[in-house]
Write a structure and sequence with these properties.
single chain, 431 residues, Rossmann fold, six-stranded parallel β-sheet, 12 strands, 36% helix
Length: 431
């Protein structure tokens, strides 16, 4: 298998393979028809005013480069792989990032990043506040970021986020001379160089690398997929986390179970997580539950209730603490969420229970170390690209506790076992 988490094994089909679904709808990565019409209409109007854009210089300087990173924490962790690529292509460039406040911690201690700017778009803000408060927050942070970006006089900006909402408007209003991004998120006319979303199945990080190469004037195509890399937590954070684990009776090796997700439909059932914890406890495995928020705390309490060797740290860890817990684990079991990407970025072995909402080819975690197995029950509709999935979600709920235990045995036994049973449609392993 590819050390970058390469090609996934596809299930065999009787007869010709079915036509593969695509996340694209008329050039945009949206499924909502009203949003599609909005983006199409807006882009048509912006296209009429194309002559108002800042014209790019003939030879783009790379003294100061700004990476725009939208979405959530998992998107930010994936984007860390782009930093090393950018440093290789422009070794003397000073790098800034503009991203939402909830992802800031991913880059706060990264020596590759000179400065951070914040924009909290209302549409992806998950704070428990009303629309008016989220809209006001967006307006305030956008104004501040535009002012900061203009003052820093970045030569080039690369928007890595291919979905709506991207940062095209912020970059344009800040006057960055050259602005690269994906047209698939809308606002394409506000980029000086807008790349159409490719129809291949390359990983998200590989597609982002194409954009960075174009911005640097390098050959666009490469077989390499950038590897996620998050700096190790500082010694103080590691010591604080070790003390917290010791207080809870966790000494020596342990396995992290992370049951929550930003999208409820992508989650494995609470009953399955509790059964998995019970099975592992019976085998003498120490278990640490992680997560954030009241809903995940209540779920973790239900999972851990009455199970020995099982402790919950949900809501008790900051970003550095979570990095320390994940870095010190023997393995991590999670759904398709940020903790899976964090485990890959820190080189911790992981089992990822992947729903069929997104493509595993495009979104699997990529890390340079550790081992990885991704589990998904075979269904003909995956990937469906439907944000709300379906009622049954057989793709994820069909994964059994036996499947996960077998995958963990494979990881913890150094890959000497046969791995998960063939009933799982996609299994990706990284040596």
């Amino acid at each position: 298998m590819d050390a970058r988490g390469g090609p996934l094994t596809e299930p065999a089909h009787a007869g010709p393979p079915p036509a593969r679904r695509t996340a694209l709808r008329g050039g945009y990565l949206v499924q909502n028809p009203r949003l599609w019409w909005y983006l199409r209409t807006t882009d048509a109007l912006l296209g009429l005013a194309a002559d108002r854009r800042t014209l790019p210089p003939s030879t783009p300087p790379m003294r100061r480069v700004l990476l725009a990173i939208g979405g959530h924490i998992g998107d930010a962790i994936l984007a860390t792989g782009s930093l090393d690529l950018l440093r290789a292509l422009a070794p003397d460039a000073e790098i800034g990032v503009v991203l939402p406040s909830w992802s800031r911690a991913v880059f706060s201690d990264d020596p590759r990043v000179a400065r951070i700017h914040i924009v909290d778009h209302w549409r992806v803000n998950r704070a428990p506040v009303g629309m008016a408060a989220r809209t006001a927050r967006y307006a305030e942070t956008a104004r501040q970021a535009i002012r900061e970006i203009r003052e820093q006089a970045y030569d080039v900006a690369v928007d890595l986020y291919p979905f709506y909402p991207n940062m095209a408007g912020v970059l344009w209003r800040a006057g960055v001379a050259r602005r690269f991004g994906f047209a698939s998120g809308g606002r394409g006319p506000l980029f000086t160089d807008a790349l159409s979303w490719p129809s291949d199945e390359r990983h998200m990080a590989a597609r982002q690398a194409t954009l960075i190469r174009l911005a640097a004037g390098a050959p666009a195509e490469s077989d390499a997929t950038p590897i996620s890399a998050v700096p190790a937590p500082p010694a103080e954070a590691r010591a604080r986390t070790a003390a917290l684990l010791a207080e809870r009776g966790v000494a020596g090796s342990y396995v992290v179970l992370h049951a929550g997700s930003g999208l409820r439909k992508k989650e494995w059932s609470g009953e399955a997580w509790r059964a998995l914890a019970a099975r592992l406890a019976e085998r003498g495995v120490r278990i640490v539950l992680t997560g954030a928020g009241d809903a995940e705390r209540l779920q973790a309490d239900r999972i851990a209730a009455g199970i020995p060797r099982c402790v919950t740290l949900v809501g008790q860890l900051d970003w550095q603490g979570l990095c320390a817990v994940v870095s010190g684990a023997s393995a991590v079991v999670s759904g398709d969420t940020s903790v899976a990407h964090l485990a890959a970025a820190r080189g911790t072995s992981r089992v990822v229970i992947f729903s069929g909402i997104n493509s595993t080819h495009e979104w699997h975690p990529v890390g340079g170390r550790g081992a990885q197995l991704m589990l998904q029950h075979p269904v003909p509709c995956a990937p469906c690209y439907r944000r709300d999935g379906c009622a049954a979600m057989t793709c994820v709920n069909g994964v059994t506790v036996d499947d996960v235990v077998a995958a963990l045995d494979t990881l913890l036994d150094g890959g000497r076992r046969d791995g998960p049973p063939p009933s799982l449609s996609r299994v990706d392993s990284v040596p």
